Fold:
Amino acid sequence: MIIILKKDPEQKQLENLKAWLASQQLSIHESRGDSHTILGLVGDTSAVDIDLLRALDIVEDVKRVQEPYKNANRKFHEEDTIIPVGDTQIGGDIFTMIAGPCSIESEEQICQVAMAVKRSGATMLRGGAFKPRTSPYAFQGLRGEGLQMLLAAHRLTGLPVVTEIMDLSQLDLFRDVDVIQVGARNMQNFELLKELGRSGKPILLKRGLASTLQELLMSAEYVMAGGNQNVVLCERGIRTFETAARNTLDLSAVPLLKKMSHLPIVIDPSHATGIASVVKPMALAAAACGADGLMIEVHNDPSHALSDGAQSLTPEAFTDVMAAVQAVLPLACRYRNGKVV
Ligand code: PEP
Ligand code: MN
Structure:
């Protein structure tokens, strides 16, 4: 349920209303917009008398929210969420470019790639230390040591770093990481999401291989219900009957999620396609349809990469994609508060 307040509500009445709502075991999510303030209510609202609320002086309107996601819902929070990360941000007027290798392979490799993507204009560095591989015999990542190498690349370039957590037991190692990624395979690891909800760190939440947008938002809700509102949604392709590409990139997720939620949306054309030559066209399409950013795999020597070489761009190819994306951005579809402007 949401309560839309009249402009400049009388403070005492507002406090009384909030105290009464809290006494009904409802948690209140207050969102102050330009035109009005919204109180989003989470909990069992079935006993709340809507007409009584509507009759209050300070209340303009009351609406029930049918969707099971509340904190992530655009109705709860009209304005687009902007997440500060280091000297930059995700969402708002900045287009985020996260680039780097699938896996961190050595300090030299991650530092080389970090310097190259920074020169090309990347705003954040990615690199996996804990790798969710389909085969237990494939390279599993350099784990804690890999994280140290990623942090060395951060110190060298100043780029904020994004890296994937696979299990709660790893959380202590992520203290200096700027953005914690939850991979597609862990999108519904609810215990992990609950703990990340208590962490306060920005979370990049990837859509599950066969998850609906509503399920993605319910996973975001797990993090937000724990008090962490800093969630970035990431579309990275879903399983369909098509086998020509690794996955099928669902770009309609961008306008749909913009409507459903206030959270920023990043597109990963690398995992969505699995093919380096297909990354650029999909990156341009993602930028054009109004995504808040891209996450692209870049490797200094893709043919010898320990994981995902086939979809990794060379630093030169990334420079080319970056320039092409910059050219598209002025023409890109823009949203403000969920609507195309
Ligand atoms: C990754 O980004 O390295 C990754 C494993 O992605 P996904 O979870 O989307 O497969
Ligand atoms: Mn990868």
About this structure: The domain at 83-340 is CATH 3.20.20.70 (TIM Barrel). The chain has two domains: 2-63, 83-340.
